[in-house]
Amino acid sequence: MKIRLQKVIANAGIASRRKAEEMIQMGEVQVNGQVVTKLGTQVDPEADKIRVAGKMIHNNNKERTIVYAFYKPKSCVTTLSDPQGRKTIVDFFPKTKVRLFPIGRLDYDSEGLILLTNDGDLAQSLSHPSKHVWKKYLVKIKGKVAHHELQRLKSGPIIEGQKRQPVRIKFLHYINDKTWIEVCLQEGLKHHIKKMFKELNYWVIKIKRYAVGNIELQEMKPGESRLLSQAEIQDLLQLTQNRS
């Protein structure tokens, strides 16, 4: 059975499907000795010999999906390497025999839940705003945010002049001159939460993501991780089905 080349690469755990598409367009992928740059190229993972960046990949369409929950600490980037020499999630995450890559991202100075997987399709589905998978955050803001200002964000905040998807906002409490709220997003722009409060002239002090879909941090501490059960993974897969 033939399937798209980028999906074969993602299934092999080499990269996310989006990254695989970039690698194809850059000429880093060969099929049966020939460089392939056309997206959507169909291949037979059982018969065709596929190389990515010169390395032969061995595909197993029945490979078990693996997902880890990881508590990303502050002052750490959500990548596998960093040209600036900053700490990455690799510095905290235990080594595994399978290649894992992060689903989505968190800002350098934010903390909380990141999922890592070997399944490129699952990674793309959970990250894409069209799948409407909610990510939940605890946010501390400098100043006392009025309730009517939070209501303005629910229908979709204006960020850099563009209206974004609706968000869920829940006021938690004031502590001295700080406001604690819960924010739930379906999309994740760079500095999304910081930018939407900046539009209201407020400064975000702390961001902690505590849930992605049905998966929560629970009792994990910064730098800790846990392997998700197959039941939890099935629940995640269910979240991405039949949505557009």
Automatic annotation (TrEMBL):
EC numbers for this chain: 5.4.99.-
A GO biological-process term: enzyme-directed rRNA pseudouridine synthesis
Source organism (scientific name): SAR324 cluster bacterium
Protein name as catalogued: Pseudouridine synthase
Keyword RNA-binding listed: yes
Annotated keywords: Isomerase, RNA-binding
The keyword Transmembrane belongs to this UniProt entry's keyword annotation: no
SMART domains for this protein: S4
Domain RNA-binding S4 positions: 3-72
PANTHER family, per database record: PSEUDOURIDINE SYNTHASE FAMILY PROTEIN-RELATED, RNA-BINDING S4 DOMAIN-CONTAINING PROTEIN
Similarity annotation: Belongs to the pseudouridine synthase RsuA family.
Molecular function GO terms recorded: RNA binding; rRNA pseudouridine synthase activity
